[in-house]
Design brief:
This protein is of the alpha/beta class and 586 residues long. The chain contains 16 helices and 25 strands. It has 3 domains: 238 residues, Aminohydrolase, N-terminal nucleophile (Ntn) domain (Glutamine Phosphoribosylpyrophosphate, subunit 1, domain 1), CATH 3.60.20.10; 186 residues, Glucose-6-phosphate isomerase like protein, domain 1 (Rossmann fold); 143 residues, Glucose-6-phosphate isomerase like protein, domain 1 (Rossmann fold). The protein has an 8-stranded antiparallel β-sheet with strand order 3-2-4-1-10-9-11-15, covered by helices on one side. A 7-stranded antiparallel β-sheet has the order 5-6-7-8-12-13-14, covered by helices on one side. A 5-stranded parallel β-sheet has the order 17-16-18-19-20, with helices on both faces. Bound molecules: 5-amino-5-deoxy-1-O-phosphono-D-mannitol (M6R).
Length: 586
């Protein structure tokens, strides 16, 4: 995944593009670059590493048209040459690209036989050169169309032409959105890139090509016609996408959960009840997602199983093809995704639709690919989540799934009341006191090699999510288990001092307590999360009991713990190594 920004307006393009790129570094940050059209020349800078120090003030002269890219290498190592933008041999075209060109070898060979030279190891460098190749006979826009028709794979690209100053952008399976300001037009992979300038956006569809000249026009490659795309106003504001007084987005987003949960449950009643009706009507129900969103699916499946007679099967999106024989027009597939751009999720949607299944979604990013592929969707309304880890969006997913589950039982009102009551618990959990208390625990745990997390029933998905939160940001090996499962093998790894986090509900807790005693007696250091302190706990994290809604609260201290562990170990919690916010490649 990479970040793209393009600008055409009245201001200095480099001064706008570089800070905007910085806002997209969560999408990739191993190298970056910009190119602007300056007095009939394309001038550019390309650098390995992050945008740092004086980079932010780079000024490539008085140009007011430009493109920028922050890269997450997929094709070719991390070097200045491989960073984007890439230029055509004649220097007339510069391109930034996100995605993978599957037929790149064949296209490279074709260009080489036509005397084109390559300076990078990337597949992306094919694009400006193919455009140059076609520009010999046709205008820029047509050359871009012909180029895109030859490319296989998912992409989002922006190309600029030196001679005309035209910007041409296109997407297929990879996000790209336009920002329409008063005197400026932006193209970016994600809205926070231009939120300081405008909240008027145009979402591009797959196959769309947008031409930004004196006017803005749209063409769809698949339909082979000019198309109209509407300007939409988005609710997010620039402040939401900034760190404010927080050192990191992750901590800011953890602390925002009082508001994000409130917004998640402030939904159109009919929409929630509509989902509930669809669930009741379906012959079979699947909850499909990846990563943290999958843990939310598992939780949703347990909730429905516990409270209703619905058997909703949680499925990892990347494994969905194994369920395809069970999908027909009476099946309901609910996909859950923060970004709405995860390629495995989008593939699962495609497969489900091919089988004539009914596909709905719970998603955070309005206008994302997913919102366009499904019959209807519930927005999480969590606001932009910039930190790579899912934090506030995970609890929003749990809150929405809880509300749906209540609605399946015709208890929407009761559910809403219970969720509203929960918000004051969340308030205490995100307070400074709690954060300081958990800092102590982080100090105890910062040098450990392994952490195990256990929970039963609704606390099992929480155990899985806790382990994911800890390992992805602190790089400490963490593994989550169902309480009853540890003794089937992994207990062999427990030795004196091995930290084990245990989620203990107020009621029906005998079995998890007995699992805890099993590990405690092998020397484990027990970190207990629950409403009451128990003698076996070595460290106690108090979370008021919220019954079936416990999971929404219990994950919060772990998010905070994971954050402190990362900071204490000197890692950047917003950009963990090897990870990108949304996984748009297979
Ligand atoms: O955008 P999505 O919800 O589809 O993303 C799914 C996963 O990639 C995501 O939850 C990932 O596991 C995060 N790193 C979790 O913090």
């Amino acid at each position: 995944m990479c970040g793209i920004v393009a600008y055409k307006g009245r201001q200095n393009a480099s001064e706008i593009i570089v800070p905007s790129l910085k806002k997209l570094e969560y999408r990739g940050y191993d190298s970056w670059g910009i190119a602007v059209i300056n007095e009939n020349n394309i001038e550019y800078v390309k650098k390995s590493g992050r945008i740092e120090g004086e980079d932010i003030e780079i000024n490539l002269g008085d140009a007011n048209i430009g493109i920028g890219h922050t890269r997450w290498a997929t094709h070719g190592s991390v070097t200045d040459e491989n960073a984007h933008p890439h230029l055509s041999n004649d220097g007339n075209v510069a391109v930034v690209h996100n995605g993978i060109i599957e037929n790149y070898k064949e296209l490279k060979k074709f260009l080489e036989t036509n005397d084109f030279k390559f300076v990078s190891e990337t597949d992306s460098e094919i694009i400006p050169n193919l455009i140059e190749y076609y520009c010999k006979n046709v205008r820029f826009k047509t050359a871009v169309k012909r180029t895109l028709k030859r490319i296989k794979g998912n992409y989002s690209i922006v190309a600029i032409e030196r001679e005309t100053g035209i910007i041409c952008a296109s997407r297929r399976g990879s996000p790209l959105v336009l920002g329409i300001g008063e005197d400026a037009t932006f193209v970016a992979s994600d809205i926070p890139a231009f939120l300081d300038y405008t909240t008027n956006v145009v979402y591009l569809y797959d196959g769309d090509i947008v031409l930004i000249d004196e006017e803005i026009s749209f063409f769809n490659l698949d339909e082979n016609v000019e198309v109209k795309r509407e300007i939409e106003k988005i609710e997010w504001d620039a402040e939401q996408a900034k760190k404010g007084n927080f050192k990191h987005y992750m901590l800011k987003e953890i602390s925002e959960q009082v508001d994000s949960i409130e917004r998640a449950i402030t939904q159109d009643k009919e929409l929630i009840e509509g989902f509930a009706k669809d669930i009741k009507k379906a012959r079979n129900v699947f909850l499909v997602a990846c990563g943290s969103s999958y843990h939310a699916s598992l939780h949703g499946s347990y909730l429905l199983g516990k409270n209703t007679s619905i058997n909703a099967i949680p499925v990892l999106a990347s494994e969905f093809k194994n369920y395809i024989n069970f999908i027909d027009q009476e099946s309901l597939i609910i996909v859950i995704s923060q970004s709405g751009e995860t390629v495995d999720v989008l593939d699962a949607v495609k497969m489900a639709k091919e089988q004539k299944g009914k596909v709905l979604a719970i998603v955070n990013v309005q206008g994302s690919s997913l919102t366009r592929e499904v019959e209807k969707y519930i927005l999480m309304n969590a606001g932009p989540e910039i930190g790579v880890l899912s934090t506030k969006t995970y609890t929003s997913q749990l809150a929405i799934l809880s509300l749906i589950s209540y609605s399946v039982n015709n208890k929407y009102k009761k559910g809403l009341k219970a969720l509203k009551a929960l918000i004051k618990y969340v308030y205490a959990l995100t307070s400074k006191n709690t954060r300081e208390y958990l800092k102590k625990l982080s100090r105890n745990l910062r040098y450990v090699e392994h952490i195990y997390t256990i929970g039963r029933n609704l606390e099992y998905p929480t155990a899985l999510e806790s382990a994911l939160k800890i390992k992805e940001v602190s790089y400490i090996h963490a593994e989550g288990f169902a309480g009853g499962e540890l003794k089937h093998g992994t207990i062999a790894l427990i030795e004196k001092g091995t930290p084990c986090i245990v989620f203990v509900p107020e009621k029906n807790n005998e079995e998890i307590i007995s699992n805890m005693i099993e590990v405690k007696s092998r020397g484990a250091y027990i970190i207990g999360i629950g409403s009451k302190n128990i003698e076996e706990f070595d460290f106690f994290i108090k979370v008021r009991d919220a019954g079936e809604l416990n999971s929404i609260c219990q994950i919060i201290p772990i998010q905070i713990l994971a954050y402190h562990l990362a900071v204490m170990k000197g890692h950047d919690p917003d950009k963990p190594r090897n990870l990108a916010k949304s996984v748009t490649v297979k």
